[in-house]
Every structure is written in structure tokens, then in C-alpha cells.
Amino acid sequence: MSAETATTSVHDFITKTVSENDVVLFMKGLPDQPGCGFSAIVVQILDHLGVGFAGVNVLQNDELRQGIKSYSDWPTIPQLYVKGEFIGGCDIVREMFQAGELKTLLAQEGLLN
Questions:
Q1: How far apart are CA 51 and CA 70, in angstroms?
Q2: What is the CATH number of the domain that holds 93?
Q3: pLDDT, tens digit, for every residue of 88-103?
Q4: How many domains does the chain have?
């Protein structure tokens, strides 16, 4: 498989994942066992807000790990998507949470109880 084919199939997987799940976190590790502090912070924020989300472990596959960075044109992991839209990484999610913007966004999208 060529590198271009691999990137296309990874991007297809990412597109499918973000379109089938309202909230997706591409992260290192899994929600119940984050593989880095930055992923753990975003998981804690989402858990605190009580929003359900799909966690995708980018460490399971190097093509996925690189592919998510090119897909979003964002260099770091974790990456949060809400309703198919890229929100940001740990710092942006934390800032939005602290300002109340993340809760507002999730509420506007009908994702909070």
C-alpha cells in the first residue's frame, strides 16, 4: 500500500468516526487509561461535564497517529471533535472549559443533560 493510499484510508476512517459520533476524542490511550497527561486532562473535563464521547487511541496505529495531525492540520494530540467540527487540543479545550464556552457549545449542540 502506498503512503498516499494509507493516508486516504486513515482520513476516511477519521471522517467516518467524527460523522458517526457526536463527540470524539483522538487521544493517547483510552478514556479509562489515558496514555499522557494532556489526554487525561481532556477526559477529566468531558467526564466532569457529563458528556458521552468516543475515545480513539492513536497509539494503536502510527498511520492513525500521523493521519489525525494531517487531517486537522493540528500538530498535537489529543484532538477533540464535536458534531464533526475540530475544536482543538488540550490547551484550547481547557481554556474553553474554564471560560464556560465548552459547556455552552455542548449545550447548544444538545449534548448535555
A1: 27
A2: 3.40.30.10
A3: 999 999 999 999 999 9
A4: 1
